[in-house]
Amino acid sequence: MASQNSFKSILLGMQGNLLSFAMKLTLNSDEAHDLVQDTTLKALNNEEKFVDNANFKGWMMTIMRNIFINNYRKSARENTIIDTSEDLYRLNVPQDSGMETPDNAYSVSEISSIIAGFPEGFRQPFTMHVAGYKYEEISEELSMPLGTVKSRIFFTRKRLREILKDYR
Fold first, then answer.
1. In this structure, what DSSP letter does residue 143 have?
2. Domain annotation covers residue 168
């Protein structure tokens, strides 16, 4: 029983060190306090696994680091977006693009009609580039020199910006 009390007193005495380490890991006060709490709870639940002659501070810091890494990996998994659309259409669409709103759908159709009015020699390289083709692929597909492809995409983009400059 004396060992259990000394374990808890050492654990309580380390709270400042744990908080300092947690701040270095999270860079956020609230998250740091949560991490200290999770670490303390895990240490109390696994008290029997601690060996008396082991480095207590090192053991606690390892527990904290592992909890932080596991939480980070969990957060990364939860924030990963899996594109289930046909041809991975939404893979390169920014998440805040608002593609689902009627206003933005109208603007996309309006932009598409403006692009449709461009000459074929400019429209085709530009639409291929927007679709994700690389300059070299467009050059090969259209049997056009690489420099021509780049300049036509550049001038189409510039012209589109000029037409839409007042558009909001």
1. T
2. no
Rounded to whole angstroms, the Cα distance separating 32 from 28 reads: 6
**What gap in Å lies between CA 36 and CA 62, rounded to an integer?**
12
Closest CA to 136 of 152, 127, 147, 151: 147
Q: Report which of 164, 165, 157, 168 is spatially closest to residue 103, judged by C-alpha positions.
A: 168
How many structural domains compose the chain?
A: 2
Q: The pTM is what?
A: 0.49
Domain final residue, candidates 32, 57, 78: 78
Q: What is the pLDDT of residues 126-157, one digit of tens each?
A: 888 888 889 999 999 999 999 999 999 999 88
115: domain CATH number is: 1.10.10.10
Mean of pLDDT over the chain: 82
Structural tokens at position 140: 């090969």
